[in-house]
């Protein structure tokens, strides 16, 4: 059950504990939620203890240190363990989790397997349980006698076996040595004794095989001929997983087979385990025998695994087309699993992909065992190249489904077509079928498909008509290129448990057959808590627990989103608190909403996340235009103003003032500065077409004169790229002798004045009959001139202009006569 997952009052739960844990309730008992408390008590999963196993001839002991659990390495390195500092355990005694116990055998038996066992999650963390086996006997070095049948000193004979001994001349009697529980009978003092010493009493000391031997009394184990005989030791028994040192020098892998002289010291050192622990022990050769106690490196290896066993494993599926399951639930996100958890994987489509790696993996020691599974596409995904063939499934009259472990489950009575994809021009593929129950008489129709809409040059079909249990088996398609792909089919009548009826819950069906899909809704206007759709899976389980209908309302919107610099929480207005209800967010002026503008009340009585935040509006800093500058400093908040200016002899193109808006954008594009010509000046009795401080490069101005004056110079000036005008300003000189052409010039001057004063509008042009439907710039200017001339002539006919000219001429003539 997930942490902080709340249970509705009245709910009855049945709890199952994981491996190594036991329930504190009676077996198969349930717990009920009553007014916020569990009855009879809150279910808990507690770590299970271990029980001392029953081992014939075995002795289990545990350190007497109360309240302190000892690890295997501590047991191996603690002096006195196995003697007076341990208490003997009885069979089935409970051992707490993590405690290490020691195993030994009764007299005459040797330990086979680990000597230290650690309890972990109700089980003994060892690869195999220890046993007690009858101790063998080692043949001693003889003096005055020889072994028969090829036996020699140093060899080991099994329990209950015998060896014949022959005496040299002058010694008697011969004997047969019998091995019984690690002890040879009779002793070396009872046979082949010198005839002169036959009356010497034999020693009475006895020694158990594998027990600790001290220096004193060793002389009694060998015949005393001259009182000074010292014998060598044979090669020591090898222990797997160790390095061997002789008198401090490594001899691992080069252990000599001849004898080791008296006093030789052999050191065994276990190779460092996973946890870095090491164990060493020594054996010393004393008068032909190795003295000391040997250990087993497997104890440390097992302990290393035990210490890691409790680590959890993280699973993240990063492989495409691989689907993994845990307890029949698909894993769709990164999850931590406890030790011992097993996940099962398959390809998303077992007909189109093939899997390599381990199908089932177990969490052991903080990592997953086995090989990571991967799925690779077959020939359909590779343009039918040299890859195993793709198998397509088509079915009718019954459902099919893929199992979690990559098999195809077929409901009885289903018609299943399996189409092996292979290019027909390269030959015919072949179907091979291996049934679980061999039946050579069971045959299936196969051949190139002829169904409408299918590709008869690509799909080689095998059909199971009305599947029955006997059709279960492995179906393998092999191409002429010897590439193959197989599918394991199980024909089984799978049904999910009937769904109980709950008040207010409406289902669109009651079927339980494999593949059945049931959709739920609430009849009482309440919210549906849980999955809206359940599907009967191949495992015989529904895809999710049965949902319930509850009256749900969301509370206040608790905004707990962490705030950064320049952020604040937005205002919230709840529109409706029912499931599906909404709450809107807004920010004050100068602040912008970052995130969703509203949230929705979910069926779990919580508002949908994430919540937005308000960030202070700011506009990006703008660089000054080339040959210009900006008035204003960053940061620029909503409402701030930027003013653009140009350097002398430059003109501004665009808006000189920009405003930072609430959207975080400027009100317009930044302007630019371009080179310009300054005001050229004016002429007396003349007019300019445009008067301003700066003129753009390429811009023109035209000059005209008042009536009675004549223009001398260029009538039009152009602003050049060097910021200078193309000509000097023209002059307006008085006219001294008027002619008819002068009257026309005077009329033209009045026309230009009327046009420059904007006395003529476009609508005046359109009213004239002579105006064409489509005006070019030249025809438009001509039409404007025509309208102006017409108006002037209506006011004063051309004769008036001629009369005015004649008056001027008369006045000028009289002046000349005087």
Task: Please tell me about this protein's structure.
It is a single chain. By secondary structure, the chain is mostly beta strands. The chain folds into nine domains: 36 residues, no CATH class; 84 residues, Ribbon (Complement Module, domain 1); 72 residues, Ribbon (Complement Module, domain 1), CATH 2.10.70; 65 residues, Complement Module, domain 1 (Ribbon), CATH 2.10.70; 113 residues, Immunoglobulins (Immunoglobulin-like, Sandwich), CATH 2.60.40.10; 46 residues, Complement Module, domain 1; 50 residues, Complement Module, domain 1; 58 residues, Complement Module, domain 1 (Ribbon), CATH 2.10.70.10; and more. The chain is 10% helix and 33% strand. The protein has six helices and 69 strands.
Short structural summary:
Helix content is 10%, strand content 33%. It has 818 residues and is mainly beta. It folds into nine domains: 12-47, no CATH class; 50-133, Complement Module, domain 1; 136-207, Complement Module, domain 1; 313-377, Complement Module, domain 1 (Ribbon); 379-491, Sandwich (Immunoglobulin-like), CATH 2.60.40; 505-550, Ribbon (Complement Module, domain 1); 567-616, Ribbon (Complement Module, domain 1); 619-676, Complement Module, domain 1 (Ribbon), CATH 2.10.70.10; and more.
